[in-house]
From TrEMBL:
Pfam families per record: HTH_1 (PF00126), LysR_substrate (PF03466)
DNA-binding in keyword set: yes
KW Cell wall biogenesis/degradation (keyword) present: no
Keywords of the record: DNA-binding, Transcription, Transcription regulation
Protein name from the UniProt record: LysR family transcriptional regulator
SUPFAM superfamilies: Periplasmic binding protein-like II, Winged helix' DNA-binding domain
Record PANTHER family: HTH-TYPE TRANSCRIPTIONAL REGULATOR YBHD, NITROGEN ASSIMILATION TRANSCRIPTIONAL ACTIVATOR-RELATED
């Protein structure tokens, strides 16, 4: 059994360190139990034994769950370093690319799931066949939540300039910038306007991707204004649902250029795609991950390839604005 020797001559098990670092992320024994497939009673007992061995309280209960004590925070940081060191040893033993293995869980907004993530996964599988993936398409709020709770190795999210927060728990890697565009059928009244403003757009029913006010207020209000009422006819995270409303001429779409360039559906001659004038519509895509989570060799290779694919998309993709 893996262990570290304590000052009292007792053994500190690696699983105890894994439990306390995971609870620090999830906030509860129940969540950690579900994530690690270990019973809650076994986790509780392991933590109790560790606290007795160290002679300190690591967690205390609060209204929101378990919170690390001040001493507990220091112990958890050191525990994570020990876990990271063990993972480094395992990776060193499997430094040959053919032997590199690992499982990565990626939580991402839908626009990045169209081309860039599939191409990234294909390249990684070709180089490292023993790396496996689980890709979960989520809304922006859920992406961040998955990463903070330790349910995702990476999150791919977008932010406006004003909403990118300095979160002490997260590290961010910029991937690409893309403007929001308006798309509509060529028989729409908007087709007669050369420079389309947001005030022109809000006169028409709109198909949007946000499904709750939290995403609307955080990601759309900074661009379109808090006091502008959008006449939404359909709110859906499913881009296929939105585009069929647009194709029937009963809605106009507000989508990122990344989404529009990734989907050949919008390249049809029946559609017109134009920039929105008068406001800054730039969204920036970032890869986010927990700072204290071990950055495995598999994760490093994925990140490297993800950045390569994002740069390739920026450099090689022809803009549909010229059609």
């Amino acid at each position: 059994m893996d262990f570290y020797q304590c000052t009292r001559g007792e053994t500190m098990r690696i699983d105890q360190l894994i439990f306390i670092t995971d609870i620090a992320r999830t906030g509860s024994i129940a969540n950690t139990s579900e994530r690690l497939y270990v019973s809650s009673s076994a986790i509780s007992q392991a933590i109790r034994q560790l606290e007795e061995e160290l002679g300190v309280k690591i967690f205390e209960r609060s209204r929101t769950g378990l919170e690390p004590t001040r001493t507990g925070q220091k112990i958890i940081i050191k525990a994570q370093k020990i876990i990271n060191g063990i993972e480094d040893l395992k990776n060193e033993a499997k430094s040959d690319s053919a032997e590199l293995e690992g499982h990565l869980t990626i939580s991402a907004v839908s626009s990045f799931c169209k081309i860039i993530i599939p191409k990234t996964c294909a390249e990684i599988k070709a180089k490292f066949p023993r790396i496996t993936f689980e890709i979960n398409e989520k809304n922006p709020h859920q992406v961040k939540k998955d990463v903070l709770r330790g349910n995702a190795s990476f999150g791919i999210n977008f932010y406006t300039y004003s909403t990118l927060e300095d979160n002490q728990l997260l590290t961010t890697t910029h991937l690409l910038d893309t403007p929001m565009m308006v798309c509509f059928r060529k028989d729409s009244e908007l087709a007669r306007i050369n420079n389309i403003s947001i005030d022109d757009i809000i006169k028409h029913p709109i198909a949007v991707s946000f499904t709750d006010n939290k995403d609307k207020n955080k990601y759309y209000a900074p661009i379109f204004g808090k006091n502008r009422e959008l006449k939404t006819i359909i709110q859906s995270q499913n881009s296929d649902t939105r585009k069929y409303f647009i194709s029937q001429g009963i809605a106009v779409g507000i989508e990122t250029r990344l989404t529009l360039e990734s989907d050949s559906f919008f390249h049809h001659e029946d559609f017109i795609i134009k920039p929105i004038f008068g406001i800054n519509t730039i969204l920036s895509y970032y890869c986010i991950r927990l700072k204290n989570q071990h950055f495995t060799a598999a994760a490093r290779e994925f990140m490297k390839e993800l950045c390569t694919q994002a740069n390739r998309f920026k450099n090689e993709n022809k803009s549909i604005l010229s059609k």
